[in-house]
Structures are given as structure tokens and as C-alpha cells.
Specification:
Layout lengths: L1 H10 L2 H8 L6 H11 L18 E3 L2 E3 L3 E3 L5 H4 L4 H10 L4 E3 L16 E5 L5 H14 L4 E4 L47 H10 L3 E6 L2 H9 L4 E4 L13 H12 L5 E4 L6 H9 L4 E4 L1 H33 L15
Parallel strand pairs: 3-10, 4-5, 5-6, 6-7, 7-8, 8-9, 9-10
Antiparallel strand pairs: 1-2
Helix pairs in contact: 1-11, 5-11, 8-9, 10-11
């Protein structure tokens, strides 16, 4: 992974590299994410038949070959000229699934027929613009809506160089929103979201709704009670409230809160190795998402780079599963985690 990051750093413009890497504020949450997964200790089983290990699973009814999925990220056309289209091709080749950002730089209709994908949604102040974007996503084949719930305002980022927004071409963003001539305030993120927003999205789109950005057990229960099919534990890669708890620490209590509800549970943030994925799954996650690593892979190798990254992480997961005495995903249970 370190080699991949260094190769991407040599390829990317400075402002884009900064945008991809930076966290909010002093970068406390962003900096500790990986180390918190590393700190978890495992209790492997012995004398289990692991002659064949399967990483196959399903997420909201979509069958996938791996529980390592692709998180939504923006400015993908700065990493590769084909942006999200290349990301989906690589993901499809690895048997995985993508959550596509509402800020995508390519039309949703160009993604039809590739990997299974969900659409990430920021609810805008102008609800009609949001509905139109989601309609385009559904018509192009999106299988779920992922509501980003942790961004009523954008977390403050600090850098000394020129802003990426001064250099990025306008067509690299919001390719699925008719924003020309629209007042800027109508494109701002809505700050008045409530649990009722979940049901509104479900009824508007006819798709299952995932709520992303949850760190609290009580919020997780409320989301499911309001109609969410899944909850996504995330601190936005450390890019929102600096000092927010690491997802490795938040996952267990959220999993406990959702036990018996039938809701699926996902997590992202600092997952860089197959061992991290194993830990998350053992703690109760249905699947894990990776964000920044997919941008590095897209930068360095395009679709083939994304496929290679996901394949390698899945191979690491399978190797760790064998060493832990788990032949399949259902065998990754809480007793594999120490403490």
C-alpha cells in the first residue's frame, strides 16, 4: 500500500493530492484511523478445516465475490480521465461493488451494465435537484441510495497551496445535476435533515436506503426504526468533525445496537489490509468500504489498478481467514476478537 501511495503522489497535481489526503482541522481523526484497526487483537481458532476459504457474500441482495467494497469519492476524473467509469470496470473485474458519489464527474447512464453500484446522496437545499439526480441514478441501475448524514456543513480543511477548486474543470463535478444557472445556495447541502428524510428517500426512489456517517449506537437504532435497510459506520475519512471517534472503536457498540434488527452494517475509515477487514467483519460488519486506496489505484493503474487493489485486499483477507480458522464469511464471529 505504501508503494502505491508513493506512485500516486508522483502522478497527481499538488492541489489534488492535498485534497485526497487531507482531513479536517488538525487531521487528528484522519491520522489515527489505520492505527486503531492495528490495535485490535485477534483470537484465532485452531483445528478448523480451512482447505477451501470463500470470501463470497451479499450486500442488500447483490452477490459479490468479496466484502471489500468501494466507497464514494469525488474528483475521480483527476485521478484518471475516465473517472468513475474506470473505477466501476476495475471493481466489476474484482467481483466487488461501488458506491458512486453524487458529485461524480461522469453521467450515471455511462455506468449501466458494469459493476453493481449504489448512489451516494447529499440532500441539497433544493430538494427537486436531489430528486432529479436520484431519478437519473435509479434509471441507470443504482441498487440503493446511501444518505450521507454527517455533512450538514462541510468540515474545515486547511492547506497552504492553491485550492483544488481553483484548478478543477467544471465538468469534473456534478455531472448528474442541472446546475447551470442555478443559485449557488440551492446547491448547498441541506442542514435540516431528520430521520424522516430516510423514509422520504425510500419512498421517492423505491430503493433501499443506507445511512452513512453514523458513529453512535442510539443514532443507528433510530435510523433503522425510520426505515434504513443498513447503517454505515463512518467519520467521513476524518474529513468532517476532527476528533470524532475512530470507526474501529465505534463499530462494536453500533453492531450491538443493531443485533436482531435485520439491518446490514458497513464500515470504512483506515482499512488498509485484509486483516483490518477480518477484524471489522468479526465485530459485526456485513462488509467494509475503502476510499483513498481506490483513488491511488485509479491514479496509478486505471481500471486494472483498481482490480489489482481489490483482488490483493481480498487475497489478504482470505489468508487471514485461514489463519484465524474461518472458512467463510459467516464464520467471522465476535469471539475472534480479543477483549
Amino acid at each position: 500500500m505504501d508503494t502505491l501511495v508513493r506512485e500516486a503522489e508522483r502522478c497527481l497535481p499538488a492541489s489534488v493530492l492535498t485534497y485526497y489526503q487531507q482531513g479536517a482541522g488538525a487531521g487528528l481523526s484522519a491520522a489515527e484511523a489505520e492505527a486503531c484497526w492495528d490495535a485490535v487483537r485477534l483470537l484465532p481458532r485452531v483445528l478448523r478445516d480451512v482447505s477451501a476459504v470463500s470470501t463470497c457474500t451479499s450486500v442488500l441482495g447483490s452477490e459479490v465475490d468479496t466484502p471489500v467494497l468501494v466507497a464514494p469519492t469525488t474528483l475521480q476524473r483527476q485521478a484518471h480521465k475516465e473517472g468513475e467509469a474506470a473505477m466501476l470496470r476495475g471493481t466489476a473485474a474484482a467481483g466487488s461493488l461501488v458506491c458512486v458519489s453524487s458529485n461524480a464527474g461522469v453521467p450515471f447512464k455511462t455506468l449501466a451494465g458494469s459493476a453493481p453500484w449504489w448512489v451516494q446522496a447529499y440532500v441539497l437545499r433544493d430538494r427537486q435537484l436531489t430528486v432529479e439526480l436520484l431519478d437519473r441514478a435509479r434509471e441507470a441501475g443504482a441498487r440503493a441510495v446511501v444518505l450521507t448524514a454527517d455533512t450538514p456543513v462541510v468540515g474545515a480543511k486547511y492547506s497552504t497551496g492553491p485550492s483544488v477548486w481553483e484548478t478543477v474543470p467544471p465538468d469534473h463535478l456534478l455531472a448528474n445535476v442541472d446546475w447551470q444557472g442555478v443559485e449557488e445556495t440551492r446547491l448547498e447541502k441541506a442542514a435540516d435533515l431528520t430521520p424522516a428524510t430516510i423514509d422520504w428517500l425510500r419512498l421517492t426512489t423505491g430503493l433501499p436506503v443506507v445511512v452513512k456517517g453514523v458513529l453512535r449506537a442510539d443514532d443507528a437504532r433510530e435510523c433503522v426504526a425510520a426505515g434504513a435497510s443498513a447503517v454505515w459506520v463512518s467519520n467521513h475519512g476524518g474529513r468532517q468533525l476532527d476528533g470524532a471517534v475512530a470507526t474501529a472503536r465505534a463499530l462494536r457498540p453500533v453492531a450491538d445496537a443493531l443485533a436482531g434488527t435485520g439491518a446490514e452494517l458497513y464500515v470504512d475509515g483506515g482499512i488498509r489490509h485484509g486483516r483490518h477487514a477480518l477484524t471489522a467483519l468479526a465485530l459485526g460488519a456485513t462488509a467494509v468500504f475503502v476510499g483513498r486506496p481506490t483513488l491511488w489505484a485509479l491514479t496509478v493503474g486505471g481500471a486494472a489498478g483498481v482490480q489489482r487493489l481489490l483482488t490483493e485486499l481480498t487475497a489478504e483477507l482470505a489468508h487471514a481467514m485461514a489463519l484465524a480458522g474461518a472458512a467463510d464469511i459467516p464464520s467471522l464471529t465476535r469471539d475472534l476478537v480479543s477483549g
